[in-house]
User: What shape does this take?
Amino acid sequence: MKISLTGTQYSALMDILGPPENVHHMIMDSFLESNKWTLEGDDDDFDDLLALISEEIGEGMCSKKNAQHLMAICKKTDPSSVDWIGC
Assistant: This one.
């Protein structure tokens, strides 16, 4: 699976401290092309990313601005995730 991110969305991901190893590698191995960052991974990697973002937002560990960018990532990854992210 691949998703394309804006620079601000990528920056919000980079602000997350201590992601699981697979998510860390997915973020660090992303590449910039035509002003967009591309994340690649398998379904488990993206499930872990969604769980991590849910924790970040649900526990208030990120700024409101970053939360908006992280929610946009969730919508790109799995549009139905916005129903449970942050719960």
Q: What stands out?
A: Helices lie at 7-14, 21-28, 43-58, 64-77. The first helix runs from residue 7 to 14. The chain has four helices and three strands.
